[in-house]
Specification:
Elements (H helix, E strand, L loop, with lengths): L1 E5 L1 H7 L8 E5 L3 H6 L3 E3 L5 E3 L6 E4 L1 E5 L7 E5 L5 H6 L9 E2 L5 E2 L4 H6 L2 E2 L11 H13 L5 E2 L1 H12 L8 H12 L4 H10 L3 H4 L11 H14 L3 H12 L5 H15 L3 H18 L6 H10 L9 H11 L6 H14 L3 H6 L4 H17 L4
Parallel strand pairs: 2-5, 10-11
Antiparallel strand pairs: 1-2, 1-8, 3-4, 4-5, 6-7, 8-9
Length: 377
Amino acid sequence: MQIYLVGGAVRDQLLDYPVYDRDWVVVGATPQQMLAQGFKPVGSEFPVFIHPDSGEEYALARTERKSGKGYTGFQYHASPEVTLEEDLLRRDLTINAMAQAEDGQLIDPYQGRQDLENRLLRHVSPAFSEDPLRVLRVARFAARYAHLGFKVADETLALMCELAATDELHHLTAERVWKELERALAEPSPLVFFDLLQRCDALAVLLPELLPLYTLPREQLEQSVAKSCQLSKQADVRFAVLLSLATEALETEQASALIEPLCERLRSPKAFRELALLCRRWHPSLAGFKQLDDSERLALIQGLDLLRRPQRLPPLLLACQALHPDHPLPACQSLPALLERLSQLNPKQLMAEGFKGKALGQELQARQLQLCSALDD
């Protein structure tokens, strides 16, 4: 039995990049041997085990053969006879097809280290085109390492284009598309992810709602996305910014009618959908907050339900700043303070002053408007 560190941990060590997860491949072992050493089995498609102490994944070396559509359409073969080189051959990119032995020796049969040095994302073998998920994975890696100068090899981009021209992308599940999208949004250069999908004609298949991004002035698109990255590492903020940009030419109701089905189709978390809808509806008012009159300011606060849900405001302001990067956002300073004062208005106190029924509601609104107006004093 031989155990090797593989994949991303090896790649990122060589790049002097943070390593978050470590995966291992076991060569020359059977499932029974793994169980005898205390490993816990997981998964049903191929033998993967959890280390009893570290909790890290150890997979038996395996090969694979295409047997159907999509990224799940594979048959796997794991046995003690499968070599490390055969296991690495099934991986997507050369930089992910390196291994490290227990003594630190690098095993690099497909020149992954050379591609790291050349800042190149290159596929390992023609079998790359059998797995449609790899289109998204390569785009995500491009978004992660673009700031280090990485590019996609021409021959790999050609295979991505070939994949996009088939029906394979249609067989990707919503969960897998969303997972790759969410991770790409959190990378240092998320726009590279969408640019690459657009270049290989995969965006029109997977995320057609975002095609209008490429009708915008390039400078505007790059500036807003760069600002969102500068302000926040939160994927939901960047998602909201992109959807607001993609629906810029639409009326608010039309934009909402596009965003909601998209989020439902992708099965995105509720927080992502909510922030995207609120941002698209209210970012112009937030950007022009100082120009609003007192009733418009109160309508904005009530429309966003900020008195009950003040936690909505910080990510909204970040997204708004990214969408309006050329001028300061007065709402960033004035709105939190106004919410604090409004929250101190107590209906019980007004009732103690003798207000009740309809008069209570009218007096509460009058004082809220007064506070909104006082911002200009």
